[in-house]
C-alpha cells in the first residue's frame, strides 16, 4: 500500500519522530513565509541568496543563482527526512563545476543541432557548448543567470516568483524574452512549477527544470534500484551527437519500454545502439497524452528501500529521462560524498529536442502577443 503525505506526517508524529522538524503546523494551516539567507557571492561581488520554503511536509531551498533547487527534503515511510536532490555546498562549485544541478533551463532546454535554426526565413546561430551542439540555452543560459525573486504566501500555498529578462540576441536567440517561473509548495507538499514567457520578436523557447533526483537521499549511491514508469509508447532516437533523428520509434521490445514500472538498472547495460551512444538513458520520451490543457500524470519514480515516491504531471508533450551517465566521481555533494555514474537522474518535462529543426515535432515558436505557459507538478508520497 502506498501511503499519502498526510498519513506519513501523522504516523511520524505518533511515533515521536521529531514533530518540530515537520514544520510545526505549517502542513495543517498553510505555509509560512519563505526565509531568505545569504548563500555566497559571485566573483563580481553579486550576492546570491538562498530561499527556504516549507509546507505540507516538504522542504525546499532555492538559490537566486540559476533558480537552482539546492535541496528538496521529503520523508520516507518512517517519517525520516532526506534531501533527494544532488547539488553543492558552495556557490563557487555551482559556478565552476555544475552539470546543471537543480537549475532552471532556458531559453531552450535540451539540444539544438549545431546551434542553428531558421525562423521566418532568417538563420540564427546560437552559442555552441556541447561539441557541435547548443545545450540548455548555450554557454551562459538561464542556469547561470541571477534571478529576481519575490516570495509569497497565498492561502495554504507558499512559494516564490522568479523573474529574468533575456535581451534580444542573448546566446544568439532573437527577441527580448521576459520570463516568470513560479515555485509553489502546496498544503499537501506538492512542488508545482509554472513557467511563463513573452517576447517582442518571434523566437523559440523550451523551459524546464534540471533537478537530479535520488529518492534514497543525496549521496546515497546508485539510482539503478529505483523503479520508473513513463506513460509513453514512443521515444525519439538520436544520432552520435544526441540530436533526434526525427523518428518516433516504438518502445515495445526495447530497453526504452517503461510503460510498466521496472528497475532502471534492469536494461541499462543492454547492448542497444542508443544506450551505447548515450552511455545509458539520455532520451526524450513522446508522452502518449500529447500536449494537454492541464497537467496530466506521465511518470512515477519509486525507491523501494525508503518507500519514497514521486509522481510527475505536466501538460508538456515530452519527458527527457537522463540516468546520470556523465557523473564521473569528480564532483562532491553537500554530504561530502562524490557523485558517480548513475548516482542521480533527471526527469525533464519539455518539448522535444531540436524541435526548431524538426517541422514534424510540436512547435516551440513563440510570437509577440502570445504567452508561453506550461506547468509541471511533483507529488511526493511513501
Descriptive key words:
Beta-galactosidase, Chain A, domain 5; 382 residues; carbohydrate binding; 4 helices; globular; mainly beta; 5-stranded antiparallel sheet; Aldose_1/G6P_1-epimerase; single chain
Structure in words:
Its EC number is 5.1.3.3. The chain is mainly beta. The chain has one domain (5-381): Beta-galactosidase, Chain A, domain 5 (Distorted Sandwich), CATH 2.70.98.10. The chain is built from four helices and 29 strands. It has helices at 5-14, 26-29, 91-97, 273-278; strands at residues 35-41, 47-55, 58-63, 69-75, 81-83, 103-105, 111-112, 116-119, 122-125, 134-135, 148-154, 157-166, 177-185, 191-199, 203-204, 208-210, 227-230, 234-236, 249-250, 262-263, 282-286, 296-302, 309-314, 318-322, 331-332, 338-339, 346-350, 365-366, 372-381. The strands form eight sheets. It has a nine-stranded antiparallel beta sheet with strand order 11-12-13-14-29-23-22-17-20, with no helix packed on it. The longest helix is centred in the first third of the chain and has 10 residues, at 5-14. The radius of gyration is 20 Å and the shape is globular. 49% of the residues are buried. The model is unreliable at 6-29 (pLDDT under 50).
Amino acid at each position: 500500500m502506498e501511503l499519502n503525505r498526510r498519513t506519513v506526517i501523522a504516523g511520524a508524529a505518533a511515533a515521536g519522530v521529531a514533530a518540530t522538524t515537520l514544520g510545526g503546523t505549517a502542513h495543517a494551516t498553510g505555509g509560512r513565509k519563505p526565509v531568505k539567507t545569504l548563500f555566497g557571492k559571485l566573483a563580481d561581488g553579486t550576492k546570491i541568496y538562498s530561499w527556504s520554503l516549507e509546507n505540507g511536509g516538504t522542504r525546499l531551498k532555492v538559490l537566486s543563482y540559476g533558480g537552482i533547487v539546492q535541496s528538496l527534503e521529503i520523508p520516507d515511510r518512517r517519517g525520516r527526512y532526506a534531501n533527494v536532490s544532488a547539488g553543492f555546498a558552495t556557490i563557487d562549485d555551482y559556478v565552476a563545476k555544475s552539470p546543471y544541478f537543480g537549475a532552471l533551463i532556458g531559453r531552450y532546454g535540451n539540444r539544438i543541432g549545431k546551434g542553428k535554426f531558421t525562423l521566418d526565413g532568417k538563420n540564427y546561430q546560437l552559442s555552441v557548448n556541447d561539441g557541435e551542439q547548443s545545450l540548455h540555452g548555450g554557454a551562459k543560459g538561464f542556469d547561470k543567470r541571477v534571478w529576481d525573486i519575490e516570495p509569497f504566501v497565498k492561502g495554504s500555498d507558499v512559494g516564490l516568483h522568479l523573474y529574468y529578462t533575456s535581451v534580444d540576441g542573448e546566446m544568439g536567440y532573437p527577441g527580448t524574452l521576459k520570463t516568470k517561473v513560479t515555485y509553489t509548495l502546496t498544503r499537501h507538499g506538492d512542488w508545482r512549477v509554472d513557467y511563463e514567457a513573452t517576447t517582442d520578436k518571434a523566437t523559440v523557447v523550451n523551459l524546464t527544470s534540471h533537478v537530479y533526483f535520488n529518492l534514497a537521499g543525496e549521496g546515497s549511491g546508485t539510482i539503478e534500484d529505483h523503479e520508473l514508469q513513463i506513460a509513453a509508447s514512443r521515444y525519439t532516437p538520436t544520432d552520435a551527437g544526441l540530436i533526434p533523428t526525427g523518428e518516433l520509434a516504438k518502445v515495445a521490445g526495447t530497453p526504452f519500454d517503461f510503460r510498466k514500472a521496472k528497475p532502471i538498472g534492469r536494461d541499462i547495460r543492454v547492448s542497444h545502439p542508443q544506450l551505447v551512444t548515450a552511455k545509458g538513458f539520455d532520451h526524450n520520451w513522446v508522452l502518449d497524452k500529447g500536449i494537454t490543457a492541464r497537467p496530466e500524470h506521465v511518470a512515477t519514480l519509486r525507491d523501494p528501500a525508503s518507500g519514497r515516491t514521486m509522481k510527475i504531471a505536466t501538460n508538456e508533450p515530452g519527458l527527457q529521462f537522463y540516468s546520470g551517465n556523465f557523473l564521473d566521481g569528480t564532483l562532491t555533494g553537500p554530504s561530502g560524498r562524490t557523485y558517480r555514474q548513475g548516482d542521480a537522474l533527471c526527469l525533464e518535462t519539455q518539448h522535444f529536442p531540436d524541435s526548431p529543426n524538426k517541422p514534424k515535432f510540436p512547435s516551440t515558436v513563440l510570437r509577440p502577443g502570445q504567452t508561453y505557459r506550461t506547468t509541471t507538478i511533483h507529488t511526493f508520497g511513501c
